[in-house]
Amino acid sequence: MAQKELLKVKNLKQYFPIKGGFFGRTVNHVKAVDDVSFEIKEGETLSLVGESGCGKSTTGRAILRLDDPTEGTIEFNGEDLLALNKKEMRNRRKDIQVIFQDPYASLNPRQSVYQILAEAMEIQNVVPKQKRRERAIELLETVGLNGDQVDRYPHEFSGGQRQRIGIARALAVEPKLIICDEAVSALDVSVQAQVLNLLKKLQREFNLTFLFIAHDLGVVRHISDRIIVMYLGKVVEIADKKTLFENPQHPYTKALLSAIPTPDPEVKKERIVLEGDVPSPINPPSGCRFHTRCPFATEVCAEKVPELKNHGFMEEGHRAACHHVDEIASGELGPKY
Amino acid sequence: MSEEIILDIKNLQTVFRDEDSEVRAVDGVSFSLPKGKTLGVVGESGSGKSVTALSILRLIDHPGKVEGGEINFKGKDLTKISDKEMRSIRGNQISMIFQEPMTSLNPVYTIGQQIRETLKVHQGLGKQSGNEKSVELLKLVGIPSPEDRIKQYPHELSGGMRQRVMIAIALACNPELLIADEPTTALDVTIQAQILELINRLQDEMGMSVIMITHDMGVVAETCDYVAVMYGGKVVEYADVKTLFKDPKHPYTVGLLNSIPRHDIDVDELEPIRGSVPSPKDMPKGCRFASRCPFATDLCVEELPSLDEIEDGNEVRCWIYSDRWDGDPEVKEHGPKRTS
Ligand SMILES: Nc1ncnc2c1ncn2[C@@H]1O[C@H](COP(=O)(O)OP(=O)(O)O)[C@@H](O)[C@H]1O
Ligand SMILES: Nc1ncnc2c1ncn2[C@@H]1O[C@H](COP(=O)(O)OP(=O)(O)O)[C@@H](O)[C@H]1O
Ligand code: SF4
Ligand code: SF4
Ligand SMILES: [Mg+2]
Ligand SMILES: [Mg+2]
Question: What's the pTM value of the predicted model, to 2 decimals?
Answer without folding.
Answer: 0.93
